[in-house]
Amino acid sequence: MVSGDKLESLIEPAVNELGYELVDVELTTENQRAVLRVYIDTEGGITLDDCETVSNSLDELLDEHDPIPHSYVLEVSSPGAERPLRKKKDFIYFAGKSIQVKTYMKLDGRKNFKGKLIGLDGDDVIVDTYNDGEVKIPLEKIAKANLLLDF
């Protein structure tokens, strides 16, 4: 199976050229079929027309380069309210928001952290956890990070 990084490097320039930000790319299997999910965003939010525009552009690009050797379904959507945080700029832009972080290995005896995103210090994400104060989490140890809805 093709790597997510290879797909991202192919898809991101096309998405950016259309005026959108590529948030994430997932190639997964659901109900025994391959699904390529592309999450996009823009300052004012994403509409159905935006998704259709990007989908049409990516259909042509993916047909031309054929990075996935088998059939798949292409889905383009907004990242949603609990959008993933993957890039350094995400951890800067969303400072002050509630987030959840899962790490590959235990840090201070745990792998799951919830709290307010303080920001980025070099290659460390700083989270003010609700119970244990601030923690620094190295970017390379983050398996998954996403925004949380505040209630």
Automatic annotation (TrEMBL):
InterPro entries hit by this protein: Ribosome_maturation_RimP, RimP_C, RimP_C_sf, RimP_N, RimP_N_sf
Q: Which domain of life is it from?
A: Bacteria
Q: Which residues form a coiled coil?
A: none
Q: Name one GO biological process term.
A: translation
Q: Which UniProt keywords apply?
A: Cytoplasm, Ribosome biogenesis
Q: Note the SUPFAM superfamilies from the entry.
A: YhbC-like, C-terminal domain (SSF74942), YhbC-like, N-terminal domain (SSF75420)
- GO CC, any one term: cytosol
Q: Where in the cell is it found?
A: Cytoplasm
Q: Ribosome maturation factor RimP C-terminal domain: from which residue to which, for each copy?
A: 85-151
Domain Ribosome maturation factor RimP N-terminal: from-to ranges: 10-82
- What family is reported? Belongs to the RimP family.
HAMAP family assigned? RimP
Function in brief:
Required for maturation of 30S ribosomal subunits.
The UniProt entry, under PANTHER family, shows: RIBOSOME MATURATION FACTOR RIMP (PTHR33867:SF1)
Q: What name goes with this protein?
A: Ribosome maturation factor RimP
State the organism of origin: Natranaerobius trueperi
